Amino acid sequence: MTDRTILKVSGPDARAFLQGLVTNDVNKLDHGLVYAAMLTPQGKYRADFFMVPAGADVLLDISSALAPGIKQALMMYKLRSPVQIEETDHVMTRGLGNPPEGAFADPRDASLGWRGYDGQPADNTVNWDAVRVAAGVPEGDIELTPDTYILEMEFERLNGVDFKKGCFVGQEVVARMKYKTVLRKGLAQVAVDGMAPVGTEILANNKPAGTLFTQADGKGLAYLRFDRATGDMMADTAMVRYAPDA
Q1: Does 1 have pLDDT greater than 50?
Q2: What pLDDT score was predicted for residue 2?
Q3: So what's the pLDDT on residue 23?
Q4: Beta carbons within 8 Å of 180's beta carbon, 6+ residues apart
Q5: What pTM was computed for the model?
Q6: 75, 128, 148, 188: which sits with the fewest CB atoms below 10 Å from its CB?
Q7: Any idea where the domains of the chain sit in the sequence?
Q8: Using one digit for the tens of pLDDT, what is the confidence trace for 23-35?
């Protein structure tokens, strides 16, 4: 995979350093991959990634488009902490089914298979967009944008946030949304008849109802206003339907 960059956070305080920044519990690395995100202080999405156990070090499997910004942010946060952040030459590979030796199960959803970092052969026959659309999984730089909040993007269901781990950047906003807010907008799987460009506005009765993103096999991922997402909607020339109880 050439669209992923693998950063390494090393040093005696690597795990403690990350624990104060990311949305999930770094201690879960003892059991495999950990899916997490970094947020802005206002609680909005900055980047999502997988933390990979590598002895005393932690690897970050992150979109190559987002990696430079996160590396810069980590360098800013580290101040005088005895940690180092550097890019590595590891290559992420993935496939479906049980993980081969040295690979890890994808923690977001069992249907997403495994991810490897030590030269495991990749399965290049898989339509990964179709797999993640069927599982309702957003992707950084597509559905996940700087305007989104992670609880609206199903991070709790996808094992990307831990409410018992303690503080992290943006934690107060996330906790408030969890315990004091009814989500009126968010990620949803929709049926799509036709195709529309990623990012096309969805209209319901000529009123904005959301945005259509990745589409595959007659399904799509959309960010919806739930109060307006009823009946047949349009995204350009594609018909969209949200039927969560069907």
Answers
A1: no
A2: 62
A3: 98
A4: none
A5: 0.94
A6: 75
A7: 4-179, 184-241
A8: 999 999 999 999 9
